[in-house]
Amino acid sequence: DDSPPDDLVDRIAGLAAGGATHALRHRREKVVSATQGSYDALFDPALPGLTLIERLQVALYACRLTPAPGLATHYRERLQAAGAETGLIDAVLEDGAPTLTDGRLRAILAFTRTLIEKPVAADKAALLALPTAGLSTPAVVALAQLIAFLSYQVRLVAGLRALSAVHDSAPLPDEPIRGAGARPRTAPAKASAAASSGQSSVAVISAQGFTSQPLGWKAWLDVVDLGLATPVQIQVLEESHPQAMTSDYYRLLVHQPEILRHRSAAFNAIMYAPNGMARAERELGATVTSRANGCVYCASVHAQRFEQLARRNDVILQVFEDPQTAGGDARERAIVRFSLDLTARPGGLAPDDIRALGDSGLQASEILDLIHSVAIFAWANRLMLNLGEPVFL
Known about the structure:
The chain is mainly alpha-helical and 393 residues long. The protein is built from 18 helices and 4 strands. The strands form 2 sheets. A two-stranded antiparallel sheet has the order 1-2. The chain has a two-stranded antiparallel ribbon with strand order 3-4. A hairpin with a 2-residue loop joins strand 1 and strand 2.
C-alpha cells in the first residue's frame, strides 16, 4: 500500500488499508491526491486573507450544520490545537454565530450557513456583505472555495462510509468496463445525426426555470486581469480548462491559484477519467445535483453534455420537471434517487442506499464514480451560485 498515511478522507471514512473500498478508492488515485491537496491548500497556515483559525471555524460550523460528526470532531480538534478560544469554539458548536460581537466573523459564518443550507439563496447581496465586512476579493474567493470544498468533503466521506459498510463485508461485482459512455441507452436513430460532431442533436428543452440552452456566466467581483496575472496564475488557468483564459469563473477563482489547481485536478479526474461509470451517467448525476441545488448554469452545461454523449434528453426533461420521479428505467431511477439523497441528506446516507444501486445493476467502481460526481457538484454548484450569475447568450 503506497497511499499517504495522512489521507484525511480515508481516516474519517474509516477506510482500512487492504479493505475493498480503500483499494477501490485508490484506483482513482488522481482524485485521492487532488482531494487531499485541496484540503492542504485550504488549510495552509500561510494562505493570506483569512486566518487559519477563521478557516477552521468555518469548517467546524459547516460540519455542524450538515451534519458531519466525524469531520466536525476533526476540525474542533484542529481549532483547539491552533489555540482558538474556547468561547469561540462553543459559539460555533452551539450555533451562537449570529450573536458574535466580531462583525467580520459574524459575516463569514452567516455566508457559510447560507451556502451549506440553501446555496441557491446566496445572491449578490449575500456575497457583497463580505467585502463590506473587510474581506478582499482573494479572501472572498478563498472562503467560497473553502465552503464549497467542505460540501464536497462531507458528501465524499458519507458516500464512502456507506459504500464501505456494504463493499468491505460482501464485495459488490466490479468487472472492468471499457469505453466509458457506452452504457446509457441511446436515442432513436433520428436523434443521432450530429453525434459524430460532438454536438447535441436533440432540441433545447426548458422546464421549471431550467434549460439545456447554452448560457454564459458573469462574476460579481473583479476577475484577474490577464495582463497583470502572475506566471503561476497563467499556468493554472492553462491547466484548468481550454476556455479558462476567457472565463469569468476561472479568472475569478485564480485569485487563489493553488486552490484552483487542486480543484481543477479533482474535477477533471472525476468527470473525464476512463472506465468505471459511463461518462453520460456521471453527467446525469451532475445534472440531478445541479437541479436539486438550484444551479441553472451547471444544470444547463451538464444537460448538454449528457445529450451529446447519450444522444437523447428524455431523462433530462424529467429531471428538470420533477427529479423525484425522473429516470427511464430502473438503473436511471436509482442513479437519480441516489444523487438526490446524497445531495440533500449526506448525514443520513445508509448502506441500503448503496445496495439499491447494486440491485439496479451498478458495479462498485460505477458507484464510486457516482459518489464523486455528486460530491464534486456540491462544490461546483456553490461556486457558480455564490460568486456570479448565469447570463443568456
